[in-house]
Amino acid sequence: MVCGGFTCSKNALCSLNVVYMLVGLLLIGVAAWGKGFGLVSSIHIIGGVIAVGVFLLLIAIVGLLCKKDASCFTCGDMMLNHATEALKILGGVGLFFSFTEILGVWLAVRYRNQKDPRANPSAFL
């Protein structure tokens, strides 16, 4: 199979998630090591680096989807279903507002071309 297929993309994304897991563990380890040896004295910096490492680790774990024999929905399928429903709702809302805009334009043209009853009847406009 060529490298443009789904198998290559799936393997590339899995390996990228493994690399992200290693980077997350490395961030947590370096922050703990820096605090242990007293290289960094600010607890806010250590806490921030550990929080970023934990967040990256969790995102990488979520990115690894299912076993080959398990039947579960992938993130792409779930997002596609959600996007389809959201686009249907947004399309209806867009049609509603476009028809009200057309109605507003029609009313504006109709009332703009009316003469003022208090004005001089012999005036041009």
Report on this model:
- It comes from Dicentrarchus labrax (European seabass).
- This is Tetraspanin 31.
- The chain crosses the membrane at residues 12-33, 45-66, 87-109.
- Keywords: Membrane, Transmembrane, Transmembrane helix.
- The mean pLDDT is 82.
- The chain has helices spanning 6-36, 43-63, 75-112.
- The protein is built from three helices and no strands.
Sheet with most strands: none
Radius of gyration using CA atoms only: 31 Å
Number of DSSP helical runs: 3
Unreliable stretches: none
The overall strand count is 0
The share of residues in extended strands comes to under 5%
Protein name: Tetraspanin 31
Keywords: Membrane, Transmembrane, Transmembrane helix
Transmembrane segments: 12-33, 45-66, 87-109
Q: Which features would summarize this protein structure in a list?
A:
125 residues, membrane, Tetraspanin 31
Describe the protein's topology:
Elements: H1 6-36, H2 43-63, H3 75-112
Helix pairs in contact: 1-2
In brief:
With 125 residues, the protein is mostly helical.
